[in-house]
Design goal:
Pfam family, one: Gln-synt_C
Number of helices: 15
Largest sheet: 8 strands, mixed
Family: Belongs to the glutamine synthetase family.
Number of strands: 14
Strand content: 15-25%
Structural class: alpha+beta
Distance between the termini: 73 Å
GO molecular function, one term: glutamine synthetase activity
EC number: 6.3.1.2
Protein name: Glutamine synthetase
Length: about 475
């Protein structure tokens, strides 16, 4: 049992325990380098991971002693890390996709507001998310965090600020070191393999009580806030909902949550996967994005008029989503596997329709008070880079507002059957991204060129693999 605190007089306790300034008690973020030094010292941090998301959203960066981190050390990475595929290969130059002939350095610029503990490490370790700048401090427009920041700047120039709330679905699966074998659900605390059909089941969540406790514990240590956690429709498929807030902060949280959930799962001898469609005949995993826009000066929801009715900006935002999201889909569905999720008669939408509280539409307007009026984009998959998915979704809505676009009539019935009103595969989606001139203003021509080149390289790598379907139906029949 812990010792009783009453055995230590209050005056002695104060003497023995120096008071820690409030700014240093927060689990996440500091404002100055002086505070960073003290924050690390208070926690006895020995090492720090300086990380940044690459095109895929994979953490890249450097680890170093905390003393070096706080001593004006210049951190650099080769620019080529933003031109390699998810499998680590470097595609051939094609079209507008080119490499830096010198492979120049780009600088890691720590964002001290993201400083937090790495709770699964045995030695005291911290992490900080970094922005990317050129060697002379110039802007690098093609990195994911900068792409999202540019979209937010477009809103800021008009006195607006987007507010988002992502929902992230993922599967827990049994360990599998042979990629030729299908994934299968893990064994829960009952000792039985988890089955599907447990949407919103508390018993389904309780199968993984200890793992979920670790997810909450790891999240609390990093200052990450989970709003709710539920069991989704698939076997051992869970969903985490995050509280609404600033898009950069929420993208950072998704970036760290993915890492956190994987680490918690590994601690319990299973995998957590954010693949869009990890198991055949089971629902895919989405990253639904709730979006609204407020006026910076007044805090008023731009989507609602003073009398509570929907504003013209609300309808134009939806009009922009309908027109442009199919062309930006590759930023929300970035892999060949992503398009296996977008299948008729499954839980994912395959249209660009919108409706009030209609989950069969791509763009759903939930029931809410006027101050909370928002649009849910149900198309992004959980394999998407959160920075790019948010940039794409908000960028399309922005174009709708500034161009005064009109949406179609809202759908009242099921619209998720029959034809698919979206790009059917990765190459088609990339071509649509590259051919839309309005995207150069929103995402930058340099980003579009690099993203298209990387995705075409990934598709060519995929085409080198012979699938079980081909062996099953072509081996002896053709």
């Amino acid at each position: 049992m812990p010792a009783k605190r009453t055995l230590v007089p209050r005056t002695q306790e104060i003497t023995r325990t120096p008071k820690i300034p409030a700014a240093l008690q927060a689990p996440r973020g500091v404002k100055t380098w002086k505070e960073a030094v003290d924050w690390l010292k208070v926690r006895g941090v020995e090492d720090i991971e300086c990380i940044t998301p690459d095109i895929a959203g994979v953490p890249r960066g450097k680890m170093m002693p905390s003393s070096k981190f706080t001593s004006n050390t210049s951190l650099a990475l080769p620019s080529a890390i933003y031109r390699h595929t998810i499998s680590g290969e470097y595609p051939e130059e094609t079209g507008n996709f080119r490499y830096d002939s010198r492979d120049s350095d780009i600088k890691l610029v720590p964002d001290l507001s993201t400083l937090s503990i790495v709770p699964w490490e045995t030695d005291p370790t911290a992490q900080v998310i970094c922005d990317i700048a050129g060697s002379s401090g110039e802007n690098v427009p093609y990195t994911p965090r900068n792409v999202l920041k540019h979209v937010l700047d477009l809103y800021k120039q008009r006195g607006w600020k987007p507010v988002v709330a992502p929902e992230i679905e993922f599967y827990l699966v049994a360990k599998n070191d042979d990629p030729d074998y299908p994934l299968r659900p893990p064994t829960g605390r009952s000792g039985r393999s988890i089955q599907g059909g447990q949407a919103y089941s508390i018993a389904g969540v309780n199968e993984f009580d200890e793992l979920i406790d670790d997810i909450y514990h790891f999240s609390e240590k990093q200052g990450l806030e989970i709003d709710t956690l539920i069991h989704e429709e698939g076997p051992a498929q869970l969903e985490i909902n995050l509280r609404h807030g600033d898009p950069i902060e929420l993208a950072d949280q998704v970036f760290l949550f993915k890492r956190t959930i994987r680490e918690a799962a590994l601690k319990h001898g299973i995998y957590a996967t954010f693949m869009a469609k990890p198991m055949q005949a089971q629902p895919g995993s989405a990253m639904h994005i709730h979006q609204s826009v407020v006026e910076v000066n007044t805090g008023r929801n731009l989507f609602s008029n003073a009398d509570g009715s929907a504003s013209k900006e609300f309808f134009s935002f939806i009009g922009g989503m309908q027109k442009y999201v199919p062309k930006a889909l590759s930023m929300m569905a970035p892999y060949v596997n992503s398009y296996r999720r977008l299948t008729p008669d499954m839980s994912a939408p395959v249209n660009n329709a919108w409706g009030y509280d209609n989950r069969t539409t791509a763009f759903r307007v939930p029931v809410s008070e006027p101050a909370a009026r928002r649009v849910e984009n149900r198309l992004p998959s959980s394999d998407a880079n959160p920075y790019l998915a948010l940039a794409a979704s908000l960028g399309c809505g922005y174009l709708g507002i500034v161009q005064g676009l009109e949406p179609s009539a809202p759908a009242d019935d099921t619209v998720n059957e029959g034809t698919i009103d979206l790009p059917r595969g990765l190459l088609e989606a990339i071509s649509m991204l590259e051919s839309e001139p309005s995207f150069e203003e929103v995402f930058s021509a340099e980003f579009i060129a690099i993203y298209g080149g990387v995705k075409r390289g990934e598709f060519e790598t995929f085409m080198q693999v012979i699938s079980p379907w081909e062996r099953e139906y072509l081996l002896l029949n053709v």
